[in-house]
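Why do we care about 3D structure at all? Because function follows from shape, and shape follows, mostly, from sequence. That is the central idea of this module. The next example makes it concrete: a single protein chain, its amino acid sequence, and then its structure expressed as tokens.
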Amino acid sequence: MKRPRRQALEVSISFLDVISCGFGAIVLLLLIAKSVEFSTPQPSPPPTQNKSITLLQEQLFSLRGETQIMTRTLSGKREQLSELEQSIARLRQQLASVNRQLLASAQADTTERDELILAQQILSEEMQRLQQLGSRKANQLIGGIPMDSEYLVFIIDTSGSMVDYAWPKVRSELLNILDIYPTVKGIQVMNDMGDYMFPSYRGKWLPDTPGRRRAIIRQMSHWRPFSNSSPVEGIQRAIQAFYASDKKISLYVFGDDFTGGSIHKVLNTVSQSNRQRGRNKQRVRIHTIGFPVHFLAPGGRMETASRFAALMRELSYRNGGTFVGLSSLDEKQ
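And the structure:
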């Protein structure tokens, strides 16, 4: 039996292919559409906002600059502070050193203060004695001086205070002492520094004649060698130049104040120069005459005058002499 022929399909394979491609195209379009983002343009800021931003930026830059300046200034201040601290530390060290020096100086000055107190006590006693003497003549004041000397050396302070206020009195006292010794074997006149009134007779005795005595008084009118108001040099040079074991010599020291160093040092120096070797005996007598310049003249230095009185009194005592303190600068008294 003959099989019947199958009926042909109305839709062909080509149509299905077209439909599939169409769906694929639609799906692809949807995928592409979803992947594209549409953005709207951002609106530009208004001009006033731009100005504010610019101003803030300028302020920011200015603050940054000021911060740098302040940082540098602070660093400089810190360095200055460090230097000041170092300076303060150095000053504290210097102050401590000065305090130590002052303490040492105060301890070293104890002896000088003791000497000043001693000088003031001696001055008080001497002033009381002078007040009791009153208006006695100068030659009466020196009446207790031993008269056994054959040679005389006058050591005269030629400082400004003596020349300006006491020179007439110095000449008068020089004459009085020469009158006490009518005749001696030799005379010499030096200042407290050891300078000779007559340089041509350096180291030699002046002959004692009336003419020589008058020449000495005349020379006093213009004799003004330099003086340091300390008789040590003059005494030492006189002893070294004129001492001889076969001569009886007296030194007469004229002065008004003492501006040298330690009184004890002066006394010891003179004692060593005036002591005979191997014997506890002086080579020469030392008499001292004190002129009250600083007690009577305006602006007088009481301290140096007091030290002079203490020194002269002890100097004459240790060297077999006499200390005479005058009460007036009047050459007639």
